[in-house]
Amino acid sequence: VEHITEEEKSKIRELKSVIDHELTPDLLEDKSLYYRFLKARDFNLKHAEALLRKHLSDRKTYLGENFKDYYPPEYIKEYLPLSFVCFDKEGSVVLYLDLGRTDPRGLLSLFTFKQLVQFVAFNLEENFRLMTKESIRRGKSVTKFCIILDMDKLNLFNATFKKGIETLINGFQLYQDNYPERMKSVYIINASFYFYLGYPLIKAILASVLLQKIHIFGKDGWKEVLQENIDGDVLPAFLGGHRSDPDGNPWCTSFLVFGKKVPEELYSKKKKSIVSEKGVKKLTINRFSSSEIMLHIYEENTCIEWEFETKVKDIGFGLYYKDSSKENSRIEELIPKQRIDTMLSSEAGVYSCNRIGTYIIVFDNSYSWIYSKELYYRIRLKKPKMIN
């Protein structure tokens, strides 16, 4: 990273000494990591550390221990139209997202919020790697990317779809917390009256530093701006450049994905519910509330198995550990708390307990201002002999 003051270098060394040993190998490869998180918190060391630790937790939740093992769910590449376009004149990655033609109802019926976040995060990570290679090729640091959000064909039905807007709000919030100082420019093109129906709700949660990078255009004026920043030879013809497919197609469908309706038959099958199954318990969790289930484990390598679903919306889930043999032992996070949508299927998981003590499953509804949640769950403990 260029143009760092001596004071900033000192802050970077301090933050590195505190948390460097907790970073995964791929994060250690990111030479701009400490600078970006410090700058996002005005070089306040304590706040930057908190933000970076949240990133580690979110990364574990959405990308797992090793995102290189990630394999996208079937159909997600076809119906979530996010594509790499090219590099701009300064070497930044340019992405294209065809939001206007996207089918939010179909997309959110076919995939969970976590699956959508995983796919976008995986794509971002891959593109950051491309920028690292481009930095080496150009002999200068390139750490930020651009995105073109195309609102062409956005209709009233989709522009006012509440769950779609909520998904965008939650997605942008996650982006801001996990990728500070990564965005160079956002070009929103073909914005019609319908776009402005939902945009104020999203705008309200965006940080001022990100808002300053958003450029909104109607049908005109945006091609000239793109041409100023992206070479015409690599910019697709429909976006104002000269690039087309080998067959002359100006839409460049050989490497760009466009939004389209998700066939209803892909998601119309009703999920199998666990509500009436043996051993399932019902729990009502009020708004602004959470519920804890204490599990006392007396034998190492006991497995905790869980399965749960809600009638509507999502529920927060996390797993924690407390050493019950020590009077003042602190509670340790094992599975970071995350909001899980069980609309498509019940959520099932397992954890192998390598220590004797108290394990705490938390179902969290503290983020909901309006809705209580009706939860159905089943928890089993399997001792090592049963597992064998």
TrEMBL record:
Protein origin, superkingdom: Eukaryota
Domain CRAL-TRIO: start-end pairs: 72-247
Pfam family, one: CRAL_TRIO
Keywords for this protein: Membrane, Transmembrane, Transmembrane helix
Membrane-crossing residue ranges in chain numbering: 193-211
Domain GOLD: 271-381
InterPro entries named among the record's database cross-references: CRAL-TRIO_dom, CRAL-TRIO_dom_sf, CRAL/TRIO_N_dom_sf, GOLD_dom, GOLD_dom_sf, SEC14/CRAL-TRIO_domain
A GO CC term assigned to this protein in UniProt: cytoplasm
PANTHER family named among the record's database cross-references: CRAL-TRIO DOMAIN-CONTAINING PROTEIN C34C12.6 (PTHR23324:SF87), SEC14 RELATED PROTEIN (PTHR23324)
Full protein name: SEC14-like protein 2
